[in-house]
Amino acid sequence: MSNIVETRRVFSPVDLEIMGRSATFDVVEIPNELPNIVGQIPLEALDWVVDTKNRKLIGNPEHGGEWVDEEFASL
Predict the structure, then answer these.
(1) Which pTM was predicted?
(2) How many domains does the chain have?
C-alpha cells in the first residue's frame, strides 16, 4: 500500500488471451522501470488461479478446472 497519489493513463481496451482463454480489459500505464504484470482481476475473469506451490496457473478448482464465464453462469 502507498500514500502516493499518481495520475495514470488508461488506454483503449485490449483483448487479453492467457492459455486459450480471452477477454477484453482496459490497460493502465505503468512506469517503464516496472515489469508488465497481469493483475488479479483479469486472472479471476479468465477463471485462472495461481498455484503458488507449483508456480503455475491452473483452472479454478471450484469449477472443476473448466472455464466458467460468470456472466453466463446464471442462465
Answers:
(1) 0.71
(2) 1
